[in-house]
Amino acid sequence: MDKSPQEPRQPAAEEALIRAALTPEINHRLRSARIVARRAVIVAEAGDLSDAARVELEAAITAALIPLAEIDEVRIALTGERRRRRLIAVGSGKGGVGKSTLTTNLAVALARMGRKVGVIDGDIYGPSQPKLLKTEGIKPGATPDGSQLVAIDSPYNVKVLSMGHIVAPGKALAWRGPMTGKALTQLVDADWGDTDLLLIDLPPGTGDVQLSMLSAHRPDGAVLVSTPQDLALIDAARAGQLFEQGEVPIIGLVENMAGYCCPECGHISDPFGSGGVEKFAAALEIPFLGRVPLTLATRIAGDQGNPPAAGDDETAAPFRAIAEKLARWLDTGTV
Ligand SMILES: Nc1ncnc2c1ncn2[C@@H]1O[C@H](COP(=O)(O)OP(=O)(O)OP(=O)(O)O)[C@@H](O)[C@H]1O
After folding, report:
1. For ligand 1, atom 19: residue with the closest CA
2. InterPro entries of this UniProt entry (predicted)?
3. Between 20 and 30 A from 316 (CA), which of 32, 146, 271, 291?
4. Nearest CA to 123 among 141, 97, 144?
5. Which one of 129, 299, 314 would you pick to mutate in the ligand 1 pocket, going by the greatest count of ligand atoms within 8 A of its CB?
6. Complex ipTM above 0.95?
7. How many angstroms does the Cα of residue 13 sit away from the middle of ligand 1?
8. Which ranges constitute the DSSP H helices of the chain?
């Protein structure tokens, strides 16, 4: 290739020359491009990229520009702080109201909408995400320097990490508060790749794990789940207070297990009452995010690690609708 000295170029012409050699994806990131004394000086936006992706981007720019006759050397500055990953907590006061099921299905629905999502199973004592996201028995790897766990890829385009992937079942039961806090930090600070949204499936209640999570990794917002029973609602209100004290905005309240549709006769009954959560949300001035009916299909799908939100039948629809509200909140700050 001829590398003989060239006539001085105008900045616009230099930029055009550089842009012509780069792919559209890289051009999209370019903030400035100059050639100074046969050296290309590139500024590119990389705030959303993982460390590995930043290295790849630099290599791709260099490989594209070095063959140009006008360029002997390439200098690249990548701008943008690594964008902070957004954390959304999914909580309930009472156990067994479907918090884990909701977390899994919101994550799957958001991934299908193009978001890069991960799930942290914060239920250190009773992890359920390995089963729900079909990753049971998989052990997470570690980064080459051994300092971080590497999140596991589930079959649903959602990354996941749970204590259930790390310790033998039942082992964490003997752990005390500080150990659970450390364990959760290990999960949050893992290598999540290009994931930019993490949903944390919190254990029920207002105990150590919730408190340590709020103080160490203040979530950007919280989704509360309740069944329509009064008792569950009272506990949901307590969980809401915990978030408010921790200055975590409550995104809204979801009603789960409302309206059981009998698969035999189609009759709809309301084993836990109906509409209670929506009224309750209105009274507390918390947005109501939607209602997920109690269906046998949802329960069976959960047990088999086939999240309903990965499909397109009527059991997927409520999760998709709630995920759309959550996505709107993430983008605009309002549902
Ligand atoms: N809408 C629903 N329809 C049918 N079954 C459901 C529904 N939501 C949750 N379940 C079932 O109820 C059980 C409890 O759900 P899940 O584990 O999601 O609740 P949780 O609030 O996370 O519980 P825990 O307090 O143990 O963390 C599971 O067997 C799940 O499959």
Report:
1. 98
2. Mrp/NBP35_ATP-bd (IPR019591), NUBPL-like (IPR044304), P-loop_NTPase (IPR027417), YlxH/NBP35 (IPR033756)
3. 271
4. 97
5. 299
6. yes
7. 61
8. 11-21, 24-29, 51-65, 99-112, 129-132, 177-188, 208-216, 230-245, 276-284, 296-304, 317-332
Going by their DSSP bridges, the two strands 39-45 and 73-79 should be labelled as parallel
**pLDDT tens track for 22-36:** 998 888 788 889 999
Angstrom distance (rounded) from CA 311 to CA 17: 47
For domain 86-332, give the CATH number.
3.40.50.300
Straight-line distance from the first to the last Cα atom of the chain, in angstroms, rounded to the nearest whole number: 57
How far does residue 199's CA lie from ligand 1's centre (Å)? 17
| CB 40 near ligand 1, within 6 Å | no
Nearest CA to ligand 1 atom 1: 294
Atom of ligand 1 at shortest distance to CA of 301?
A: 31
298 touches ligand 1 (CB under 6 Å): yes
- Domain locations along the chain: 11-79, 86-332
Tell me how far apart the alpha carbons of residues 137 and 134 are, in angstroms, rounded to a whole number: 9
Q: pTM score > 0.90 for this model?
A: no
One-letter amino acid of 284: L
The finding on whether 95 has its CB within 6 A of some atom of ligand 1 is: yes
The yes/no answer on whether domain 11-79 falls in CATH 3.30.300.130 is yes
| Distance (Å) from CA 96 to ligand 1 centroid | 5
Q: Beta strand 288-293 with 158-162: parallel, antiparallel or unpaired?
A: unpaired
Q: For residue 1, how many other CB atoms are within 10 A of its CB?
A: 6
**Residue positions forming the annotated binding site for ATP:** 93-100
- State the Cα–Cα distance between residues 188 and 192, nearest whole angstrom: 9
Q: Does the beta carbon of 327 lie inside 6 Å of ligand 1?
A: no
Contact in structure between 258 and 272 (CB atoms under 8 Å): yes
CA 224 / ligand 1 centre spacing (Å)? 14
The residue with tokens 């997470």 is 140
Q: Provide the token pair at 147.
A: 């300092």
